[in-house]
Design brief:
Blueprint (H helix, E strand, L loop, with lengths): L3 H18 L12 E13 L4 E5 L2 E5 L11 E9 L5 E2 L2 E2 H7 L4 E12 L4 H20 L3 H9 L7 H9 L10 H14 L5 H19 L3 H18 L6 H15 L7 H24 L2 H21 L1 E3 L2 H25 L4 H26 L5 E3 L5 H30 L4
Parallel strand pairs: 3-7
Antiparallel strand pairs: 1-2, 1-4, 2-3, 4-7, 5-6, 8-9
Helix pairs in contact: 1-9, 3-4, 3-7, 5-13, 6-8, 6-12, 7-8, 8-9, 8-10, 9-10, 10-11, 11-12, 11-14, 12-13
């Protein structure tokens, strides 16, 4: 096997599955009891019906909206603990979902006391995100919700009908931060800082990507894409051979060790399997098609289609057409949005030209998505899904990948020995 770390990654997935299935919630016996918690407010979400905070590894909610706690404060809170066991909404396991994004319990806030107001990285990252959001809203008005999703991964203000249209056409990855977005941002950074010393370039890239992760909340897909990119640039800097599957496997193992429940995150599943699928199958497909965008789209869907089928009960039929017509404009759109943000401080007349261009491209995307999602047979909606079918699909694909790897290793040994 050329890539033993990939086998370790697959093994870690299996161990994580076994561990999470046999996991015992330490807080189950304390359910509905009053507890006290001290920690830094890492995130805040001020919803219409409640305020929500991340303090330590707990999700803290204030349904009375009496306490608007700033991000970055070190606080002592009192409230009623809610265990994540048996938190199911219809067929959706909400407790498992919260664990997959790093929470270990919910606390309904009763009161709190601020113990330290010193500004820290959480304060600055939150202020940075709020600044960008407010600037986007001021510049683009009604178009801001979609653009916030593109740049910051914030989909809360996007209408449900639009989200459904993206799902039906297999283009949801466009509005979910992933390697596509990180790659575009890296390309823009490379263009801006081109020509400088390689070491300083690497340092600027690492710091920038780390801060971007902080702003968008360390989602698995963004962490994967950022660390993946950093490893690639580090390999180039030290002039060592770079292997995408090994780097991807390493990042996956680290995330699973940090939180085994991350395997249930759809963001984690789609991000990792899409990247793995592209790395492994792109070159094979492109030999026969020789059109990169089509090859990438087909390759990405080989390992992700079962995930979409199982989680969303949908099989998108127009995925190839939608991605070919839309994805090329996403890089242009993100670039123009970032330029508009910068130019809004320098020259409003020039900014107006960029704003109009952004609106035109966004209208094109929405019009196309709406049209494709409403075509008859553009997607197949299912009432029930079959887990055994998904498992069989992955077993067959994994068998093919292992067979191909074994064949490649054998060919390489024959070449070394002087015959082929």
């Amino acid at each position: 096997m050329r890539r033993p770390i990939f086998i370790i990654f697959i093994t870690s997935l299996l161990f994580a599955f076994i561990y999470t299935k046999n996991y015992e919630d330490n807080f189950y016996k304390l359910d509905n009891n009053e507890i006290q918690l001290k920690g830094i407010v890492k995130k805040a979400n001020y919803e219409e019906k409640y305020f929500e905070y991340k303090i330590g590894e707990f999700l803290v909610r204030d349904f009375n909206k009496k306490h608007k706690i700033p991000v970055g404060y070190y606080v002592c809170i009192n409230g009623k603990l809610k265990s994540l066991e048996d938190l199911k909404l219809n067929e959706f396991d909400y407790g498992r979902y919260l664990r997959s994004i790093g929470y270990i319990g919910i606390i309904n806030l009763r009161n709190y006391k601020v113990e330290n107001k010193n500004k820290n990285i959480y304060y600055f990252s939150y202020k940075g995100k709020c600044f960008i959001e407010n600037r986007l809203e001021n510049i683009f008005r009604n178009q801001a919700p979609f653009l916030k999703a593109l740049v910051l991964g914030d989909k809360e203000d996007i209408e449900k009908e639009i989200l459904d249209s993206f799902s039906k056409t297999g283009t949801s990855h466009i509005i979910a931060l992933s390697g596509l977005h990180v790659g575009i941002i890296i390309y823009i950074f490379n263009f801006i800082i081109r020509g400088i010393n390689k070491f300083y370039k690497l340092m600027i890239m690492v710091v920038s990507l780390f801060f971007y992760c902080f702003i968008v909340g360390f989602t698995p897909s963004v962490v994967r894409a950022c660390v993946f990119s950093i490893i690639m640039y580090l390999a180039l800097f030290i002039q060592r051979e770079y292997d995408g599957i090994c780097s991807l496997s390493f990042v996956g193992i680290v995330l699973i060790i940090e939180n085994p429940f991350v395997i249930y995150s759809i963001s984690f599943q789609l991000s990792f399997f899409a990247t793995l699928s592209i790395i492994y199958f792109y070159s094979i497909i492109n030999k026969y098609i020789s059109y990169p965008l089509i090859s990438i789209t087909i390759a990405a869907n080989i390992l992700t289609l079962p995930i979409i089928y199982f989680n969303f009960k949908i099989i998108p039929i127009m995925v190839l057409v939608a991605n070919i017509l839309i994805v090329p404009f996403i890089g242009v759109l993100i670039s123009l949005v970032l330029i508009s943000l910068i130019m809004s401080f320098l020259n409003l007349k020039i900014t107006f030209i960029f704003i109009k261009t952004v609106i035109f491209i966004q209208d094109y995307i929405f019009l196309l998505i709406n049209y494709l999602s409403n075509i008859k047979f553009s997607y197949i909606e299912l009432k029930n899904v079959n887990l055994k079918l998904v498992i069989l699909y992955y077993i067959l694909l994994m068998s093919y990948m292992l067979f191909r790897e074994t064949k490649i290793v054998k060919e390489q040994k024959n070449e070394v020995q002087g015959y082929y």
